[in-house]
Amino acid sequence: MQVIFESRQPWLEELREFALRRVRQTTRPLGWLAPRARVRLSHVQGAHNGIDKRCEVELTAEGAGTVVITSIARDWGSALQSALARAVRALLLKLQPPHPPRRTIACQR
Q1: Are 37 and 60 in contact (CB under 8 A)?
Q2: Distance, CA of 40 to CA of 19 (rounded, Å)
Q3: For residues 91 and 12, what is the distance between their CA atoms, to the nearest angstrom?
Q4: Contact 54, 24 (CB under 8 A)
Q5: Which of 83, 84, 80, 88 minimizes the C-alpha distance to 15?
Q6: 22: CB partners within 8 A, 6+ apart
Q7: What are the pLDDT digits (tens) for 55-93?
Q8: How far apart are CA 81 and CA 85, in angstroms?
Q9: Which of 82, 94, 96, 97 could crosslink 64 through cysteines, CB 3.0-4.6 Å?
Q10: What is the pLDDT of residues 75-84, one digit of tens each?
Q11: Residues with Cβ < 8 Å from 34, sequence gap 6 or more?
């Protein structure tokens, strides 16, 4: 799996290895379905109560397109894990075959 790490703040580069490891662990079962992942970390300016760590995860799958999920939390690990879990769930939902429409039977009186 190709994982791309992006951040505008140079001090976030120290989280690169942590983020790459977590993405590979979380998406290991989907590795053949989702060959590309992108992680963007940023710091939200002016956020209240210390909830200012933003993580955006983008998973690209063949045949299902791209899923982009953003999470904001108090710490980088929580923001990353939340975004990853939601992105994997969203990608799995997109990959499921559509359900056939339900048939309704009209009642006659």
Answers
A1: yes
A2: 10
A3: 27
A4: no
A5: 80
A6: 77, 80, 81, 84
A7: 999 998 887 789 999 999 989 899 999 999 999 999 888
A8: 6
A9: 94
A10: 989 999 999 9
A11: 1, 27, 59, 60, 61, 91
Q: Residue with structure tokens 């045949």?
A: 63
Q: Percent helix, strand, coil in the chain (nearest 5)?
A: 35, 30, 35
Joined together, the tokens standing for residue 52 give 């200012």
Residues in Cβ contact with 32 at an 8 Å cutoff, skipping those fewer than 6 apart = none
CA 19 to chain centre: 12
CA distance 3 to 17: 11
Map out the domains of the chain with their CATH numbers: 2-95 (3.30.160.100)
